[in-house]
Amino acid sequence: MRARTLFLLIPVILTGCALPLPDKPVRPEPYDLGPALAAPAATPAGAPLALDGVESAAAIDSTSVIYRLLYAGSGQQPRPYAHARWTMSPPQLVTQRLREALAATRPVLDTGTGLATLELRAELDDFSHVFSSPGASEGVVRLRVTVTAPGARQDRLLGQRTFAARHAAPTPDAAGGVGALRAATDEVVRQVVDWVGSLPAPR
Q1: How far is CA 105 from CA 47, 117, 186, in A?
Q2: Would you state the torsion angle of the CA atoms of residues 84, 87, 91, 94, taken in this order, to the nearest 10 degrees?
Q3: What's the CA gap between 37 and 140, in Å, rounded?
Q4: Which of 48, 68, 98, 142 has its CA 20 to 30 A from that of 61?
Q5: Where do the domains of the chain lie?
Q6: 50-198 maps to which CATH number?
Q7: What is the pLDDT along the chain (203 residues), one digit of tens a residue?
Q8: Are the CB atoms for 79 and 70 separated by under 8 Å?
């Protein structure tokens, strides 16, 4: 009886040995915004500016690369790419990009030092790869910026403005969306730097 049981188990054991091993988990590809736009000047001429970290809604404040399908009627539903991730959250990436670009024109300090004559705060309202059709998409970046002059009793508002840029994606996938978002971010950052440079100097 024992020998018969072992004989019946042999095909089961052999079948189990022939089963394919499970695939290794696919690691998400890491992405960032690439090299800095410009190197800081030897002697930045603008007024010292304090830069606070860019803020955003919780849906943007993660390392997920987000896309939206406008053509499917679900443009209000952000979806993360499964195999793509930012090296830092978009607010952190944009903060780094702003700091690098502004530092080419003026000293850029952390908030709270008391040494800056300007203070910049920003909120990232959109940072997503948007599809208008299965084959057509673009990176969309929208940033709201407020600049104040710190005062002993009260800060003085110098200006507030929303900057936006859209850039066509070369391919309808995560890599194409990242490239489009990189270009759109750089355009928004250039706009912000030009606008801050045009503001009247605080008295």
Answers
A1: 9, 14, 16
A2: -100
A3: 19
A4: 48
A5: 50-198
A6: 3.40.50.10610
A7: 555 544 444 444 444 444 555 555 667 899 999 887 666 556 677 889 999 999 999 889 999 999 999 988 766 789 999 999 999 999 999 999 999 999 999 999 988 888 899 999 999 999 999 999 999 999 999 999 999 998 767 789 999 999 999 999 999 999 999 999 999 999 999 999 999 999 987 76
A8: no
The amino acid that residue 83 corresponds to is: H
CA dihedral in degrees (34, 37, 42, 43; nearest 10)? Answer: -130
* pTM of full prediction above 0.90: no
Burial 146-175 (b: 16+ CB within 10 A, else e): bbbbbeeeeeeebeeeebebebebeebebb
Measured distance CA(118)–CA(107) in Å, rounded: 11
Q: Are 122 and 54 in contact (CB under 8 A)?
A: yes
CA distance 107 to 50: 9
